Amino acid sequence: MFELSDFYGYCQKNQIDVIPYDGCPQPGATIRDRNEYAIFLDFTKIRSTHLLRGICYHELGHAATGALHKVDSPYELVERSEHRAIRWAAEQYLPENELRVAFQSGVTEPWQLAEYFDLPQRDIEKALYYWTVCRGIDFNK
């Protein structure tokens, strides 16, 4: 299960700056300059700890995998970077065994899983897509 301490611990261990930045186009963004990484968080767009956890969960996937793209590049696909970040985060913090435990306890709907794991529903849905469609896992068995 993902905790904010996982995010800040990983950033500290890997010398990734976490920078509050009002006016960022998105609530969170990961940027690389040569070998240096920084994660920018726009707290004016983050209205709850629940949302902060989801943003940090996702941005950590970008930083850990290096799955970044240039904003104006016609050669790099945004979705490819997004998929790599989603995959890493799901494997690290929503692993198959933890999802199975949730399913076996009767927590099966995406909104229920979001409450159970204290992450936004969209992050749960992306992780479920990865595990069920990409990896072929059936949590109902």
Can you summarize this structure?
The chain has 141 residues and is mostly helical. It has six helices and three strands.
Give an overview of the whole structure.
The structure is a single chain. The protein has 141 residues and is mainly alpha-helical. It has helices spanning 4-13, 49-65, 78-93, 96-104, 110-117, 121-134; strands spanning 17-20, 28-33, 36-41. Strands 1-3-2 form a three-stranded mixed β-sheet, with helices on one face. Strand 2 (28-33) and strand 3 (36-41) form a beta hairpin. Helix 1 (4-13) packs parallel to helix 2. The radius of gyration is 15 Å and the shape is globular. The two termini are 22 Å apart. The mean pLDDT is 92.
Instruction: Give me the number of helical elements.
Output: 6
Structural Rg: 15 Å
Beginning-to-end CA distance, first to last residue: 22 Å
Provide the residue-averaged pLDDT: 92
Give the helix level as a range of percent: 40-55%
Strand-and-helix sequence, N→C? HEEEHHHHH
Low-confidence stretches are none
Give the DSSP E fraction (strand runs of 2 or more residues).
Answer: 5-15%
Describe the sheet with the most strands: 3 strands, mixed
The shape is: globular
How many β-strands, per DSSP? 3
Q: What class do helices, strands and sheet pairing give? A: mainly alpha
Strand order of the largest sheet: 1-3-2
